[in-house]
Amino acid sequence: LIAGxxxxxxxxxxxxxxxxxxFSATVQYAHTLHMNDGSTWTPRLSLHYxxxxxxxxxxxxxxxxxxxxxxxxxxxxxxxxxxxxxxxxYVRNVENANIKTSAAGGPTVALSVAQYMAPRTFGINAGIxx
Length: 130
Known about the structure:
Elements: E1 2-5, E2 8-11, E3 24-30, E4 33-34, E5 40-50, E6 53-54, E7 65-66, E8 69-79, E9 85-92, E10 100-106, E11 109-116, E12 121-128
Antiparallel strand pairs: 1-2, 3-5, 4-5, 5-8, 6-7, 8-9, 9-12, 10-11
């Protein structure tokens, strides 16, 4: 396979596909706890694991690779007795991992530009059913 870069071509024969880890898995669990007053509490856990992967088909080197990582997201939702409203707190990327989603560069230029997923993030969601 020959991939075009500018006016030239680069032979990518034998290179690994971009964003194709050899293994990835996500496990999610949520359990609703029913209180005596009819309200509910629902804790939620999401774990994602992914082996290392390349960020481009060119496989330029370490800056073009995302190392294996684990990402954990947590949440806790409270719904009132009539379930007409809820409030939920969450933490995403508990590990505060630097997870690359893309990188830019070339074979003669050091890859120095990368985009990352959001760092550890805290938040609150609220809603009303009507």
